[in-house]
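User: My advisor asked me to double-check a structure prediction for Major facilitator superfamily (MFS) profile domain-containing protein before group meeting. I don't want to rely on an old file, so could you generate it fresh from this sequence?
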Amino acid sequence: MSPPSTHAIDEKQPIDHNEIKKLDNVIDDTEAAGYTDSSVVISPEENRRLRNRALKRVLPLLMLAYLCQALDKSTIGTASIMGWIENVNTDTNHYGLTSTFHWVGLIAGEPFCAQLVRYFPLGKLLGVAVIIWSALLMGLAFSLNIKIVFALRVMLGFAEAIVGPGLLALTVQWFTTTEQPTIGAAWQSMLGGNGIISSLLGFAFYHVKNKPNGLYGWQWMSITIALFSFVCGFVILIFLPDSPTKARWASEEDKVKFVERVRGNNQSLKQKVFKKEQAWEAAKDPYTYCLFLLAFSQTLIVGGINVFAGLLLNRAFGFSVTTSQLLGIPGACLGITTYYLMAYFIKLTGETCLMMCAFAIPNIIGSLVVLLVAPTNKTRGGLLVAWYMMQFFQACNPAIFAMLSRNSAGQTKRSITYAVTYIGWAGGNAIAPQIFQKKWAPRYKTSLCIHFGLYAWFVIVCLTTRTLLARRNKQKKAALKDVDGQVRNEHNLAFSDMTDIENPEFIYSL
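Assistant: Sure, here is a fresh prediction for Major facilitator superfamily (MFS) profile domain-containing protein from the sequence you gave:
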């Protein structure tokens, strides 16, 4: 039996609920097959029990994977004020290129890795990826030639391209759409965890002097992080379940409940077959390009702020190297806090796009202060507060990926929207350091002026995206109304691997 025509939605015609109900046994999901039962009733108490099991067994491993990625990716950033630039015989422009080349590698790897997520066991895939990039970081620790550094950074980015789509896919499999913003904030908050750990390691290894055993302090720091990531890779490989139906610690009864618990997502678990019609829909859908622009615009700003944070504190504001390392810790803590604040306000208001607009305001104020106030002994404290305010915009990152995870369905389409969004994310990060040119150092006033235009552009894209999704929801809800005028949504097509546009029961999160 073929699914109901989606033309009914476009024409705002009522949907035959009885016809949809007959399709409840149509399971086009290779991972959920054999584990669905729409008659299962999950009580609030049972739902909490299942969620808590997932929080204890799955979320820590997602956080660990993202922490490793963040640590490995940012090692050169920490090393930049530990003598790395001088030891490699380079300058700040080449330093900025190390970040750009990393993101070029990630862009190249994203289309390939996003498809691997559909085909291979996710837990195994992530574990192997962590082990591979740990080896690459070890190579970076011994590289004193900038050309070799560039090559290794490209390979590191390619290997890390699996992390974003993999973690998003697991988030969708284990958690409901209302939980996903908080869960996404939790594992992405490891960017802040990385900031804390990197600052402490940078402070500690900066005191390693006179090249003990022939290595600089930043080299010992890189080796330490590489070994830590290597061990974590094996932990993830062994303990992270590939999906709810593959969790060794869950009973067969609980596996069914885990699957049914996310029925309301209308997003399926996994489908290995590549569907050309879904790929074509992804290419035509304006929402795909809205996601790209959101990710690209946001990282054009935060990518530069993150890469040049240490140099701003040290060379623009006048703090010492060790003080700059330690000042990164409260900044990272604030970043973590803003992630959870964003998730809280999204859950409270049901408004993701509007919250992202609101979180741009502290950054604009902080940037204005840094732009207009000259650094002196008296103003350094105020400039530091302004720099901390510039951490709020980072919280838009998990919000964007919550928009991606919650509003895209159909395994082939979702794999493509994941790839497109992460290419935008990586593209913004790749270009962002180039906005901070050496000729504008140390205060980078021109860079900050460019950022003001980017904030305005980001707000425009946010409001456009919200308008698009609100109009779609209005059409879908009109079509879902029954004879009594009530909106009925029983999620009977949840595991049919239909796209968000094809599925008349799919409602977008704004």
